[in-house]
Amino acid sequence: MAFVSLVQPEPGIPQQIAAQARSARPTNVPAERAKSHLPCESATALVGMGALAAARKSRRCKVARGSVAAARPTVDDWMVKPLESQDLIAQSRPAHWVLRTTDVKANLRFFTKIFGMKVLRHEEFEKPCAITCNGEFETPWSKTMIGYGPEDEGYCLELTYNYGVSDYEPGTGLTHIAVAVADPEEALKTAADMGYAVDADIITGPDGYNFRVLPKEDEDDDPFRYIAMKVGDLDKAARFYCETCGMDETDAVPDCPMFSEGAKVVRYPQQLPLVLFLDKDSAPPQITQWEGRHAIAIPGKALRAIYKRIIDSHGADGSVLHHIR
To answer: Residue ranges of the VOC domain (predicted)?
Structure first.
């Protein structure tokens, strides 16, 4: 289980590389730094296995004023193409996972020195995100995108830093992120030398997130191999991703002891797999702000089809956090 964001991608996202990401808030953040470098996008956020939340930014990337009911068109106003349309589903992909950080510099050292990632973009915001990108915190915040290549082509991580927040209660839904490197033994040794806990091929990094180190067999392979998530109901979780989000279930369960009780793998064609698994010996997953959220890029018409499907099945009240506007 996890917080999930569905976003409508737009081509030509500029890749602005930051010289460094600061973990201490500057005394005066220029207004232009608080503006997004991304083109305007519509975003839909889903919570858990059955709650859809959606929000759309205006053309100037500012949240529309007024009540949700007044701002939201009815679903019948949209020309909705069926979600099953393969040409749309083929364009969908997991985009990034949002991690909450209490120390940006420590995270940058961790990801660059151990996994060889690089900073893709850094932004500062004076006000909280209107669609809770920085969680439910009424604070200025920053985000740093980190990964291996352009955000509009490959998977990456988003490090969000809320000024004044020094601790997050860990959750138990996001279990680990698997990353392949050229020399796993060297990566594990580097992590241990830096003071991070290492258990077999799992490294516990800053803020308690776990990363599994795997060998990279082909230079052209995406280093991000899979995301492991503990769920309370395996069948329900798989239906959410397959029937609602349009993913396919596959039989390729990664070799990992924690998946022995039962696991299902869902993915878009040739994209990052999500491993959903049960742990019968422990309590159901506890979802906290620490879990962040998972962003999945989906073409706009397919996104609206998902939104309509949730509204038709569950209604607009209770399950929707941020409506499409």
So the answer is: 93-229
